[in-house]
Amino acid sequence: MKILRDDLGFVIRGERFVSYQEVQCFRYLQWLGLSMDEMGHEFQVGRWSFDFFPRGRVFWEHHPIYVKSGEDLFQYGKRRRLTLNAFGYEKTPLIVSDIMFKDQWDVCDVMNEYEIDFKRGTVRGNPTICFVRDYSREWGNLAVQEVVGVDAPVLLAGI
């Protein structure tokens, strides 16, 4: 599969992906056996588009926001959830992820860990919103701060 890169992102089979991370998500969905049509790439809901809407069963937004802009993933996810609710998707699960995936196999491992099945549209406990995070960032920062002697209450306030 040929991946072309230009100033606006990556192009695979005529589809544009804004980041290499999104390409890894695409490659994972493709590995699951989903066609481009079944992936629901850049699915429009109101004035917003969602990265993926596999088989019309579960929305997936993947943005390593914390890494790039420092935006709060939980607030971002809540805004996206409200948009879906306003357009009649109250019962449709939403996955919001910010992990920097190495490749589609890494995506596979993480989705299995969170018990997310994009083919059937199921999420562990069938929540309305599931945050897929790399919590080692927070724990890694916590461990570093503890080593240099920062008090625990200060650490909790920063998380």
Description:
α1 crosses α5. The strands form four sheets. Strands 1-2-3 form a three-stranded antiparallel beta sheet. Strands 6-7-10 form a three-stranded parallel beta sheet. The protein has helices at 20-31, 36-39, 65-68, 73-86, 104-113, 136-147, 152-158; strands at 4-6, 9-12, 15-17, 43-45, 48-50, 59-62, 94-97, 116-117, 122-123, 129-132. Mean pLDDT is 79; it is low at 142-159. It has one domain (4-134). The chain is α/β, with parallel strands linked by helices and 159 residues long. It has seven helices and ten strands. A hairpin with a 4-residue loop joins β8 (116-117) and β9 (122-123). The termini are far apart.
Please specify the SSE layout and strand pairing.
Elements: E1 4-6, E2 9-12, E3 15-17, H1 20-31, H2 36-39, E4 43-45, E5 48-50, E6 59-62, H3 65-68, H4 73-86, E7 94-97, H5 104-113, E8 116-117, E9 122-123, E10 129-132, H6 136-147, H7 152-158
Parallel strand pairs: 6-7, 7-10
Antiparallel strand pairs: 1-2, 2-3, 4-5, 8-9
Helix pairs in contact: 1-5
DSSP strand content: 15-25%
Shape: globular
Could you tell me the radius of gyration in angstroms?
17 Å
* Total tally of structural domains: 1
Mean pLDDT score: 79
- SSE class: alpha/beta
Count of discrete alpha- or pi-helical segments spanning 4 or more residues? 7
Question: What fraction, in percent, of the residue positions are helical?
Answer: 25-40%
The largest sheet is: 3 strands, antiparallel
The number of strands is: 10
Span between termini: 41 Å
Poorly predicted ranges (pLDDT <50, ≥5 residues)?
A: 142-159
Strand order of the largest sheet: 1-2-3
Order of helices and strands: EEEHHEEEHHEHEEEHH
The protein's oligomeric status is single chain
